[in-house]
Amino acid sequence: MPTLIESVFDDEDDDAMETLNLVTRQNSPSSPLHDSSAKESDETGFASGWKRTLVNPEKYRDITSDGFFTLSSCSPGFGVHELLNDSHDKWWKTNQNLPHQIWVEFQKKVDVKYLMLYVDYKQDESFCPAELKIELGWSRNDIFYTKHKSCIKPQGWVRLDLANRETRRPNRCMFLMLTVLANHEGGRDCNIRHFRVISPSKPQYDPLDRITLGLLPSLRFIKIRDADSREDFRNTIMNSVTSLR
After folding, report:
1. Domain limits of the chain?
2. To 5 degrees, how large is the angle CA 208–CA 212–CA 215?
3. In terms of pTM, does the model score above 0.90?
4. CA separation (Å) from 132 to 10, 129, 181, 235?
5. Looking at residue 26, what DSSP letter applies?
6. In the chain, which end has fewer C-beta atoms inside a 10 angstrom radius, N or C?
7. Which CATH code fits 14-200?
């Protein structure tokens, strides 16, 4: 899946172009994103520290490395690698006017329960995000879920619950977009020190069930007389039936 990026850097800026190459790279489990000097520890607040915000962390897993990341902008040396690094002493720093965005594209359908962000007003002050918008969908042009979040001088992990508002089950999607709408103290650029997409350890849908059972029995009870029902029907098809991905 190709990745795209919007940038305010000039083509003649060699350092900026080197950063762009880093920004558009795929984040995979084999990528060297871990700082050898950083050890994941619940006591130091590194990238696994999000587990402390959950009652039963063993029921969830980090699927961040399954996504392809694109940033709306970044300062040289403060790109994807720093955003996904284990150490909170490295971070993503933007380099353009608001809004700032992170796009995450998945090659298959994933269950998204939480988005975890590590931000620190004490260290970053006007660079600390204050107003956030999170969107989920099947692609950039097919968004079905939107959530807004206000952060008042946060210090540490911010947990964004992205479950379905009616069923409280994780939302199933292939695309996630985070938009920073405003910073504290009217700041222009922002710093985000960690970004983690969290999914249940056990998926909602089993591909083998779809092979052996075919259409879900629940489909027969869904009427398509109005717009809302048609949307429910479409989402059920997309989640459960149309593909084995």
Report:
1. 14-200, 207-240
2. 100
3. no
4. 28, 7, 6, 25
5. B
6. N
7. 2.60.120.260
